[in-house]
Specification:
The chain contains 13 helices and five strands. By secondary structure, it is mainly alpha-helical. The structure holds tryptophanyl-5'AMP (TYM).
């Protein structure tokens, strides 16, 4: 089975990325043949960016993924712009994608509303490129956080439409979101997801934050005025912390509630801070040495791109043939 997922090289990666996506990538290496992970620099350029920084952010992200447990001989890790097949398939898919489909995308609506300068056509096309990323590999499973559900539904729809029109070329992938904490919320504004671009630094926990900073952020996490450590749709802050605690300590949410049934919010927040600081310690400790070796990172990415290209070019040749493009 092929697994595919993508991650943006923007900013520093946070706990939401880790819990929603990265830990699933690591686990996918045991099940997939192969597990394919892509750093999506072409998606990152759909909003304002600094070209000199972009390359560095790709290395940062590659280093975070390796520090988290991706192993280059057990997965394919590469940079999106190294494999031209993605952009070609994006164009081919655009012909079976309705303008209205893209207009409905929540992420486009949110991001375009925030854009002060130009709302690029690239931002509008973002989901089509994302569909191409996955469909180019005929991947069967896409591990992501809950916020990507609509994008995965669209790629399934595009695969179906393409196949109906041109024959059985593409594979409809399945969404895979974590059972617990599929949407990690901002610690200061728990009605909103933790995000790289929205909200303050105190609301998001970076994977590379030192333990002191992590404890402090959880210590000042916003909760409600109640006392009980219990999941409740009315208690977004506490519910979020229970999910995070469950993941960080490898237990169920019921167990976490049972353990803290007699604790106040203050003690619970303190315990979550400790648990998350421990949970992220291996990533934080492994990162600096991996990040320092840019040549090594470049080698991993370019070998990954060679393997990725081999797979994607087969799908592209089939798609072109089915659409009547190029010589017979
Ligand atoms: P990116 O880099 O914005 O997010 C990477 C992954 O992190 C997940 N995530 C979260 N999960 C839980 N709680 C949160 N608060 C949270 N914030 C982010 C995202 O769901 C994502 O899985 N569009 C993709 C990148 C992409 C992609 C692809 C993904 C491009 N092509 C193909 C899958 C397949 C994105 O949002 O990346």
């Amino acid at each position: 089975m092929r697994i595919f997922s993508g991650i943006q090289p923007t900013g520093e990666k946070h706990l939401g990325n880790y819990i929603g996506a990265i830990r699933q990538y690591v686990e996918g290496q045991d099940r997939a043949d192969p597990a394919i992970y892509c750093i999506v620099d072409l998606h990152a350029i759909t909003v304002p960016f600094d070209p000199a920084e972009l390359r560095q952010r790709v290395y940062d992200t590659a280093a975070v993924l390796l520090a988290s447990g991706l192993e280059p001989d057990r997965c394919v890790l590469f940079r999106q712009s190294d494999v031209y097949e993605h952009t070609e398939l994006c164009w081919l898919l655009s012909t079976v994608c309705a303008h209205g489909d893209l207009n409905r995308m929540h992420q486009f609506k949110e991001k375009s509303a925030r854009q002060r300068e130009l709302v690029s056509a690239g931002l509008f096309f973002y989901p089509v490129l994302q569909a191409a990323d996955v469909l180019a590999y005929r991947a069967e499973e896409v591990p992501v956080g809950e916020d990507q559900r609509q994008h995965v539904e669209l790629m399934r729809e595009l695969a179906r439409r393409f196949n109906e029109r041109f024959g059985d070329v593409l594979v409809e992938p399945e969404l895979r979101v974590p059972e617990v904490a599929a949407r990690v919320m901002d610690l200061q504004e728990p009605e909103r997801k933790m995000s790289t671009t929205v909200g303050s630094d105190s609301g998001r926990v970076y994977l590379l934050d030192d333990p002191g900073a992590i404890r402090k952020k959880f210590g000042s996490a916003v909760t409600d005025s109640g006392r009980e450590v219990r999941r409740d749709p009315e208690k977004a802050g506490i519910t979020n912390l229970i999910g995070i605690m469950a993941v960080a300590t490898g237990r169920g949410e019921d167990e976490v509630e049972a353990e803290f049934a007699d604790s106040g919010y203050g003690d619970f927040k303190k315990a979550v801070g400790e648990a998350v600081a421990d949970y992220l310690a291996p990533v934080r400790e492994a990162y600096p040495a991996i990040r320092e070796d840019e040549e090594g990172l470049e080698r991993v990415l370019s070998e990954g791109a060679d393997r990725a290209r081999e797979m994607a070019s087969v799908t592209l040749a089939d798609a072109r043939r089915a659409m009547g493009l190029g010589p017979a």
